[in-house]
Amino acid sequence: MARTFAVLLTSAIFLTLSAQAQSSTPAATPASIYLLRLERARSLQSVCVLLNGAGEYHLERHTLQKVRVFEGSLDASEFRSVVHILSGDRLFNLQQKQIPLLMLKSDDDRVTLDIHRPTQWQQLSFPDSASREPFRETMDPLLQWFEELNKKKMRKFSEEAGRNNCLPPSRLEFAQRKEVQPPQPESSTPTATNVAPAPPNYLLQMFDNRLGSYKFQATCLLVSSAGAYHLVKQSTSSSNLLRNMVLDGTLSSAELATLRSILDGPDLVNQPDDPQEFEPVFMGGNYVTRVAIPRGGKVQKIAAWKSYRIVNQVMTRSVEEHGTNLFAPLREWLKSNIDERKAVPTATPSNPRCTPE
């Protein structure tokens, strides 16, 4: 299908040219067909490009100090090469849900793509280089072309005259098309909108972020109601090397019963939610732990921390400690029943944020 799209796309561009030449009435030119918007943001600067069907492009370089605007054209060979890359089966069929969204970022290197497909815009976002690792055979050639394009000599424009953030005219929107559902006749039968949602299928969801020995570590744990558990550990050192490990298993009935008794203990049950979000400032030995426990149709959310905090853009004057004793029984249970040392290293952990189904 992807290769067919490449042929149809190229053919459509040249057919449009022929039709315009043979007709006395104005026709849509290839310039009105936008093929690609690509943006790469790194270290407080970003570069974006918008490419149309005639091979013409608009490129902008953004820094904190200024914005530089350029335009140019690809030759026929380079344009065909870009179309070939965009039409590769792996990229053509790639969906955002297939791109791993890890708890930690390996670096500050975000890439976003908007590609015009036959029925819609394909929108993809890669938050860091680690998220692109499984798709290097697709992304490396595209980014290499982008870097080479950025080094070319191009026509320069003033920011006031040319800046548009590499966006097409406002009548074209980068938004996935949604199917329009026909109106439904009135019925006494309950519809999907008024049917009560299914109860949560998990017993515990836990996130733990901490800094120790010059290594930042993030861990998530999901325990299902049936006792299956999924644990993901990620860590990054001073060298920015990102490591991922995964551990899956099933608790025995006795282990599961003990966990339930801890979660249903009066201290946890009566603990009020901690809805306020804050930004922790980590130093050696600091941590933030967040726990979600479904109870009676709702999800109780509790947090414990030992760190400086930034609340409403103001940092606390000293390290705060909250909930350490509250989570002590749960932490002891985790040490006794889930051996994190058995976690298996992997470059692409499944369900990297321990999201319930």
Description:
This protein has nine helices and 17 strands. It is an alpha+beta fold and 357 residues long. The chain folds into two domains: 30-162, Mago nashi protein (2-Layer Sandwich), CATH 3.30.1560.10; 202-345, Mago nashi protein. The strands form two sheets. Strands 8, 9, 10, 11, 12, 13, 14, 15, 16 and 17 form a ten-stranded antiparallel sheet that branches. It has a seven-stranded antiparallel sheet with strand order 6-5-1-2-3-4-7.
Highlighted features:
357 residues; alpha+beta; Mago nashi protein; 10-stranded antiparallel beta sheet; 7-stranded antiparallel beta sheet; 24% helix; 34% strand; elongated
How many domain regions?
2
Q: Unreliable segments (pLDDT under 50, ≥5 consecutive)?
A: 10-29, 171-193
Total number of beta strands: 17
- What's the CATH first level of the largest domain? Alpha Beta
Q: Which CATH architecture of the largest domain is right?
A: 2-Layer Sandwich
CATH topology of the largest domain: Mago nashi protein
> What structural class is derived from the secondary structure elements?
alpha+beta
Approximate strand percentage: 25-35%
How many individual helices? 9
Helical content class: 10-25%
Rg from Cα: 26 Å
- Biggest β-sheet description: 10 strands, antiparallel
Mean pLDDT: 81
